[in-house]
């Protein structure tokens, strides 16, 4: 009789860690560990994840599946449109290696509200075009509710905008839909992040990750390899430009030597060097140049 009771107890304990045969409990480590294996299999079998730099991120459907197995459901609210300003999208030629061969494509690489930055980018040989775009932005909230009691036990909120590089070409309905999808993933992640980690995936939902470079994952590495000599030359020029800048700020007299410096400085500074110059504008503001041959003065703190 005692042996039969022990057998029943063992069977009950074993049944608790088999998902589907009893209600899973987030407070039970055995349930979480056992379900992690089931969740991993489900995600891989149905292709519900993306891999970015050898790291796997689960999609919204994977998060919803996890929630339902713990008796939870995500209920998103209606997305709300947020008024946004206009901005510029900058497009450049990108070189990348695919199937062992070098290829080129025109791609959105940056967004800005400043026309000055657009003008600087125009000096880049890889610059193709820029386009003025009206920002489309939505925010959405989502509640996590217990299916057994109807009680709200979790919450999440996310936004989506066409200012994101991977979304610059999206229509308004797609931006609105993505905001809602992200809110679902976020709300579930706030409760079940550790469950997804147990399954071998990151706790950040795939919809929150910038997947812009997933298709052309070799771009950065290949471009660096191809342009290595050019990068070294640019760094050398920037170093020279900075040295010349420091030298100019130290001059106390306006001489022919100053004219030679101006010519050398213009020749040495490319668009990257200009950024260094802009970073030292405080020095230039304190350096007063007299164009009538008199001595210059330097403001000192």
Q: Estimate the helix proportion, in percent.
A: 40-55%
SS-derived structural category: alpha+beta
- As a whole number of angstroms, the C-alpha radius of gyration is 29 Å
E-strand count: 9
List the secondary-structure elements in sequence, H or E.
HHEEHEEEHEEHHHHHHEE
Low-confidence stretches: 5-21, 213-228, 279-301
Helix count from the secondary structure assignment: 10
Strand content: 25-35%
The separation of the N and C termini measures: 93 Å
Shape: elongated
State mean pLDDT (0 to 100 scale). 76
Task: Characterize the main sheet.
Answer: 5 strands, antiparallel
In short:
This protein is of the alpha+beta class and 301 residues long. The chain contains ten helices and nine strands. Strand 1 and strand 2 (55-58) form a beta hairpin.
Write the layout of secondary structure elements.
Elements: H1 2-16, H2 29-46, E1 49-52, E2 55-58, H3 60-69, E3 72-76, E4 80-98, E5 101-112, H4 115-121, E6 127-146, E7 152-161, H5 172-198, H6 219-226, H7 228-250, H8 256-268, H9 271-279, H10 281-285, E8 287-288, E9 297-298
Antiparallel strand pairs: 1-2, 3-6, 4-5, 4-6, 6-7, 8-9
């Amino acid at each position: 009789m005692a042996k039969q009771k022990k057998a029943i107890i063992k069977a009950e304990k074993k049944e608790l860690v088999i998902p589907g045969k009893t209600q899973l409990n987030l407070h039970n480590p055995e349930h979480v560990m056992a379900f992690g294996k089931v969740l991993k299999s489900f995600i891989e079998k149905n292709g519900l994840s993306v891999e970015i730099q050898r790291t796997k991120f689960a999609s919204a459907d994977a998060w919803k599946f996890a929630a339902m197995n713990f008796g939870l459901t995500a209920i998103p609210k209606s997305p709300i449109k947020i008024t946004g300003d206009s901005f510029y999208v900058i497009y450049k030629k990108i070189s990348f290696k695919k199937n062992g061969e070098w290829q080129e494509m025109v791609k959105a690489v940056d967004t800005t509200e400043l026309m000055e930055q657009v003008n600087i980018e125009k000096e880049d040989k890889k610059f193709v075009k820029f386009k003025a775009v009206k920002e489309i932005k939505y925010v959405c909230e989502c509640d996590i509710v217990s299916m057994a009691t109807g009680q709200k036990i979790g919450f999440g909120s996310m936004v989506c905008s066409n200012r994101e590089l991977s979304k610059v070409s999206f229509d308004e309905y797609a931006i609105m839909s993505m905001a809602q999808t992200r809110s679902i993933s976020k709300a579930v992640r706030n409760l079940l992040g550790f469950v997804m980690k147990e399954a071998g995936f990151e706790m950040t939902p795939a919809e929150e990750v910038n997947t812009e470079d997933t298709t052309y994952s070799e771009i950065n590495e290949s471009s660096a390899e191809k342009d290595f000599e050019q990068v070294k030359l640019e760094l050398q020029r920037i170093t020279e430009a900075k040295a010349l800048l420091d030298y100019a700020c130290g001059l106390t007299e306006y001489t022919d030597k100053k004219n030679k410096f101006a010519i050398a400085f213009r020749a040495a500074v490319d668009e990257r060097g200009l950024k260094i110059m802009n970073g030292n504008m405080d020095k230039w503001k304190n350096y007063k140049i007299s164009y009538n041959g008199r001595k210059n003065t330097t403001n000192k703190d």
